[in-house]
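ok so i was messing around last nite and threw this chain in just to see what happens. nothing serious, just curious
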Amino acid sequence: MFSLSIPLLMAARPAVAHFPAHAASGINEGLLHALMGLDHVLAAFAVGLWAVQRGGKYGWILPGAFILFMGAGWGLGLVGLDLLQRESGTAASVLVLGLLVMAAARPPLGLSLGLIGLFALLHGHSHAIQSAEVASGLAYGTGMVIMTGLLHLAGISVFRLLRRERVRRFVRLTGGSIAAAGCIMAFGWI
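result:
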């Protein structure tokens, strides 16, 4: 099972997020960007896995909060507020979210929302910085939100489809692989 994570680790790059600004021109680019930024794919997928792993109300609250806070981060970026360490923070989010999945962590709702909120703000802000000078930045952001939701649903679906105990171990191993990729991104080892 661990060998499945090797392609992810080999593909990991530092979390220098993102397409050049000229590429951020519409909804299609927003949809694609969410799939092209490994940091975003791994973080959004991990949020879905962690949410459904937690069960109950967390299954929808955490992904919903991520999308809302990502929108807030987007807004902060569009108005020119600079968040320090956003690139390092997005890489750290992959590491931490992967560890949370791996550990099947169950912190209180407030702490869970705080982590999700911080990470989503950083992701949204990074994406806004790249599209701030583009006339159709709203369309781009809409595409990002849609694909982020779909990535959350992918994480939720994988877990729900594979509920057996050995699969839960696989999900935890996947979390460890996501954390390893985040570590590689954070420290720029590739």
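not much to say yet. The radius of gyration is 16 Å.
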